[in-house]
UniProtKB/TrEMBL annotation:
Species in which this protein is naturally found: Pseudaquabacterium pictum
A single GO cellular-component term on record: plasma membrane
Record's keyword annotation contains Cell membrane: yes
Family (UniProt): Belongs to the chromate ion transporter (CHR) (TC 2.A.51) family.
Pfam families, A to Z: Chromate_transp
Protein known as: Chromate transporter
Membrane topology: Multi-pass membrane protein
């Protein structure tokens, strides 16, 4: 279990269960708090390991929630994967099922539509916070800042697929790693 005891695993599961209920817009929106907990509070990962884990998981084919499994694996192997994935998926799945049933019965409700519309700015704020945390390791480098700004502008102003932007970022990163 990578040196973690049962109480640590329980704490990991409880923390990710709480994040599950806050993950409006997907689990990635809670990455800043995952980083705070795993890196800052517990010291189980470094900032660079956290950022690399998110980047690798997001670049890999499959569901976006894969990064949660990567965090769990890094912290405590298979037990960590089970704790983080059960935590992040369990409570929100039960809540989504219940709210979905409620929403289908009251689809014309003004209150329900207002609530749904109110989630949009919350989701955008959480995504911006995630972007801020993930750019921390390279934020002081002007080239990286330009790449981030260019990616954001391309996402907002064009209909270019995000996959092309990810590919361009991978090429830029690979070129930066090539010896001189």
């Amino acid at each position: 279990m990578h040196g973690l005891g049962w109480t640590d695993l329980l704490g990991l599961w409880l923390h990710f269960s709480l994040l599950s209920l806050l993950a409006v817009g997907g689990a990635i929106t809670t990455a800043p708090d995952m980083q705070r907990y795993l890196v800052g509070q517990q010291g189980w990962m470094s900032d660079a390991q956290f950022t690399a884990g998110v980047a690798i998981a997001q670049a890999a084919p499959g569901p976006n929630i894969l990064f949660v499994a990567v965090m769990g694996w890094h912290v405590a192997g298979v037990a960590g994967v089970l704790a983080t994935m059960a935590g992040i998926m369990g409570p929100s799945s039960v809540l989504a099922f219940a709210v979905g049933r409620y929403g289908r019965r009251r689809a014309d409700s003004i209150a329900l539509r207002a609530f749904t519309a109110g989630l949009t700015p919350l989701t955008l704020g959480l995504l911006l916070s995630t972007g801020w945390v993930l750019t921390a390791p390279v934020r002081s480098e002007w080239v990286a800042a330009l790449l981030v700004l260019g990616t954001v502008l391309a996402s907002v102003r064009t209909r270019v697929s995000p996959m092309w932007l990810i590919a361009a970022g991978a090429v830029a990163g690979a070129l930066a790693l090539q010896p001189g």
